[in-house]
Design goal:
The protein is α/β, with parallel strands linked by helices. It folds into three domains: about 150 residues, P-loop containing nucleotide triphosphate hydrolases (Rossmann fold, 3-Layer(aba) Sandwich), CATH 3.40.50.300; about 60 residues, Histone, subunit A (Orthogonal Bundle), CATH 1.10.20; about 60 residues, Helix Hairpins (Orthogonal Bundle). About 55% of the residues lie in helices and about 10% in strands. Helix 5 crosses helix 8, helix 6 crosses helix 8 and helix 10 crosses helix 13.
């Protein structure tokens, strides 16, 4: 007898699109609890710059995997799967709906679809490909994307022509195995997903997103973002820890180290945030089974009713 996979709701999207507020309201409507899928909000000292939801914003809705890690703790997608699985199991055992919310695409893919194992890798080949990008010009990545298209047109059609991580990975895998990365993914997909997920991704126009990012950044700085990071560094944490190299935190660290003047700090954070949001959108565009919604569409009562019925089936 086949054991049915748990059904979960996933709310994803780029930074500052309103994911958490939507997920909180969904949790109230669906008798749910939240599971965070944000690689920065996981850390215990990163409150302001990670936009970690406050108790007031959560309004009593339980939110798992927030502030669970020390800044020096190693973490990856495999560990996230373990932690999220435990949280989801606890939520479902209480008869509640698990709503996974966040913008870390790799974590979400790994949780829902599993981590593909056995795909070959070669650090030397990867380093050579990255060196080629570093030594090239604006056309280099496009040329490499064309090389991906020649050996793996299916995967090339799903990735952006200026996505260095995915382009390098595709060329690396083909160079090592002689098989397209899409074929490796196809073999992994045949194993089936780990969860049945109603996966929503919030879509917002770039200008509208910028109109949210700019005031949010300035509000975070006014709330004491710089002092938050100053306190972390004063407690002996290294400035180049992975969490402190995340978007926004990297700029605040640079400011405190005298590498970025105060007058330019907000502008640089806003620029980095918009660039990050673009990468997030590119990532989610490459995911199958994702339903793209405007925030208004995601809040339609008929859609919530349909989601409730799907969860009950």
């Amino acid at each position: 007898m086949t054991v049915p996979r748990p059904r979960i709701v996933v709310v994803s999207g780029a930074t500052a699109t309103g994911k958490t507020a939507l997920a909180v309201d969904l949790a109230r409507a669906l008798d749910g609890e939240l599971v965070g899928a944000d690689s920065v909000q996981l850390y215990d000292r990163l409150l302001i710059g990670s936009a970690r939801p406050t108790e007031e914003e959560l309004s009593g809705v339980p939110h798992h995997l927030l502030g669970a890690l020390d800044l020096r703790a190693p973490y990856d997608a495999a560990k996230f799967i373990d932690d999220a699985d435990r949280a989801i199991a606890g939520i479902t055992s209480r008869g509640k709906t698990a709503i996974v919310v966040g913008g870390t695409g790799l974590y979400l893919r790994a949780l829902v679809k599993g981590l593909a194992t056995g795909i070959p890798a070669d650090a030397g080949v990867r380093a050579e490909l990255h060196a080629r990008i570093a030594a090239g010009d604006a056309e280099t990545l496009r040329e490499m994307h064309r090389e991906v298209a020649a050996v793996d047109p299916e995967y090339a059609a799903r990735i952006h022509v200026t996505d260095p991580v995915r382009i390098v990975r595709a060329l690396e895998v083909f160079a090592v195995s002689g098989l397209p990365l899409s074929e490796h993914h196809r073999r992994h997909a045949a194993l089936g997903p780990r969860y049945e997920a109603s996966w929503w991704c919030l879509e917002i126009e770039r200008d509208a997103l910028r109109a949210r990012v700019v005031p949010r950044t300035r509000e975070m700085l006014a709330r004491g973002w710089v002092d938050e990071v100053r306190g972390i560094l004063a407690d002996g944490y290294e400035h180049d820890l992975k969490p402190l190299r995340s978007v926004g935190y990297a700029e605040v660290v640079a400011h405190l180290r005298g590498e970025l003047p105060a007058r330019a700090l907000s502008t640089e954070i806003e620029r980095a945030t918009m660039s990050f949001a673009k990468r997030q959108r590119t990532w989610f565009r490459g995911e199958e089974g994702v339903e793209w919604l405007t925030l208004a569409a995601a809040r339609e009562r008929s859609r919530w009713d349909a989601l409730s019925e799907w969860l009950k089936r």
